[in-house]
Amino acid sequence: MTAQRTSAHHQLGSPSFDPSRFTPQFHYRGAELFCEGVSLEALAQRVSTPAYVYSRRSIEDSYRGFQRAFRSVPHTICYAVKANSNLSVLRILAKLGSSFDIVSGGELYLLRKIGVPGKKIVFSGVGKTRDEIREALRARILLFNVESSAELEILCEEAARLRITAPAALRVNPDVEAGGHRHIRTGHHRHKFGIDLAAAAKLYVDWRGASSIRWRGVSMHLGSQILGVPAFQRAAQRVAKFVGHLRASGVNLDFVDFGGGYGVQYFNERPPSLEQYARALSPVARSLHCRLLIEPGRRIVGPSSVLLTRAIYTKSNRGKTFVVVDAGMNDFIRPVLYDALHPVMPVRAPAPGAAIRRVDVVGPVCETGDCFLKDWPLPDPQPGDLLAIWGVGAYGFVMASQYNARPRPAEVLVEGRKFRVIRRRESRADLTRGE
Question: In the CATH hierarchy, which fold is given to the domain comprising 124-294?
Fold first, then answer.
């Protein structure tokens, strides 16, 4: 980090958070925050706030990091569309050669709209409808990750009607609990996802001769924002043993899908490197002579974006200071939904010696939960100050709503020294569209 960046960072009184370490594409040049080669202050003057701002280079670098980490084993990266489904983001990844993991017919529609072939799509999700299954069969997707015996029956019925052999895997539940918050843990027996190993083994054997499906793989997914490799190792070992039993029963598979869940740094987390994740999973796929499928989402797009927001008011109640900003929980719900900590930084760094105040950064929505941070250090915040909320590229805009009749924000993509709007800001007319 340069001396200029260091001084700007330490003025905030938060030495645990280093924006350049979080992602080098967002950095201070002197006192001004840039995304790649674009001033965020200048960008905000053009597109207004709130606005999601993405770094194309950050997305590309993250994807290539997965390619390098897993290069020693045959693998396919299936980007998890649910993390961020903006068409421009999907196009970037498609151009890099990514495959995709979907969980709805709507996500299939988005991919088909930009020309992604079915052979590069894996369909996961616990509640696929008959219509969605039929649509995916017609698209000739690579794999269905089946979550129940009832879903398997419908898949076979629809495949038979279309005279198609459905490529299938069962999502097994390895009974390993992992993930950053209870709402995003998916691999324990009490969660709704997957099939118990014993029940799955019976389904594989019972349906191995069916003409309407072909067993291609086995799938698992433990959760999201996993900050250690032991859970992956335990689950992978159980799946490896399971695949060995299937082979002894005459069921041979091509793919082992270990899902996603690779954690990122939001504040002071210390997630494993991609190489550490790869060392936990690659040997299992290699020993089974199966192609490894991985489904990263957050780790690819999470660090790629900030949410620009402008302070509207400051107020104090009995020694408590609030900074009211123009972004709300409808724009970015992770802090209230997951107790997620996303650092907030001023786009213009404070002058040396500026007073630092502990404040609550809150939005305008009529909910007490509409709070981004509590007791967070900011340099003497004033109305009109431009702030950046960090690490919002995953599960940010995709979870936004129009609650309180608030139009959703713009999305902007920075490419070197240029930027372009990749989703226009909604108007008030959009609030009643379809009514």
Answer: TIM Barrel (3.20.20)
